[in-house]
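In response to the reviewer comment on reproducibility (Comment 2.3), we provide here a single inverse folding case reported in full, input and output, so that an independent group could reproduce the run without further information from us. The structure tokens appear first.
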């Protein structure tokens, strides 16, 4: 009985492969590649700029969270709660579709970078706070005892050590941001995902094109993962 089922499965698979129009698949992929490459470059561009915005905001928010000022710390905590407590997609909708009702019109590209950057800043802020608080408090006290100001102690003593500890978490955040950037396709940004959807509307090869889109994302994430791992190893060697 099992042999009979296996034979039927093989026959079904062979029949399926024979029915596939391989020439049409090849032509669809050949047509899609330039657009997918263009979309990938847009995705990398948006992610890179958003990461920069997220790092700057994250460092400021992280420092604010560990400051002695309750007001500054409260504002930073409120920022984190808002952006981590609401979906990124809704934040993008507010920036692109909501702000025009208030008289402020953003381009799709600017809304995408702003939305991703503000959202990333909240997560990076918590990562930075955790890294700073992981450093023994005695090091701050020792730095202050030799005449350093709070800012100097943070810049020369605390932050350099904290950066080495938060690299893995930052790497995971950047990889997550790269994948989350696919959401900007809903606000008319011609990133990788939107380019794939536009190609599908012309070719009707949904499975094939989405598979190609997934492959491009995988390659980008794979490369970024290797860069993060290399950076982490170099920092360990420098220790």
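Designed residues, in position order:
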């Amino acid at each position: 009985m099992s042999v009979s089922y296996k034979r039927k499965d093989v026959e079904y698979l062979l029949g399926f492969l024979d029915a596939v129009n391989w020439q049409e698949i090849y032509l669809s992929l050949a047509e899609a590649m330039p657009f997918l490459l263009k979309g990938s470059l847009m995705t990398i561009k948006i992610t890179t700029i958003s990461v920069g915005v997220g790092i700057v905001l994250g460092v400021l928010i992280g420092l604010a969270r560990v400051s002695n000022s309750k007001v500054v710390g409260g504002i930073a905590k409120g920022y984190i709660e808002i952006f981590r407590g609401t979906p990124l997609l809704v934040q993008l909708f507010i920036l692109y579709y909501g702000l025009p009702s208030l008289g402020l019109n953003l381009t799709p590209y600017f809304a995408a970078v702003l939305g991703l950057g503000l959202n990333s800043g909240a997560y990076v802020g918590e990562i930075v706070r955790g890294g700073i608080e992981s450093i023994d408090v005695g090091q701050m006290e020792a730095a202050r005892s030799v005449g350093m100001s709070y800012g100097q102690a943070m810049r020369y003593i605390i932050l350099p050590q904290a950066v080495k500890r938060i690299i893995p978490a930052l790497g995971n955040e950047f990889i997550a941001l790269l994948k989350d950037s696919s959401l900007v396709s809903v606000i008319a940004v011609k990133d990788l995902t939107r380019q794939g959807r536009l190609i599908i509307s012309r070719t009707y090869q949904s499975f094939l094109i989405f598979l190609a889109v997934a492959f491009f994302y995988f390659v980008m994430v794979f490369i970024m993962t290797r860069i993060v791992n290399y950076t982490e190893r170099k920092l360990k060697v420098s220790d």
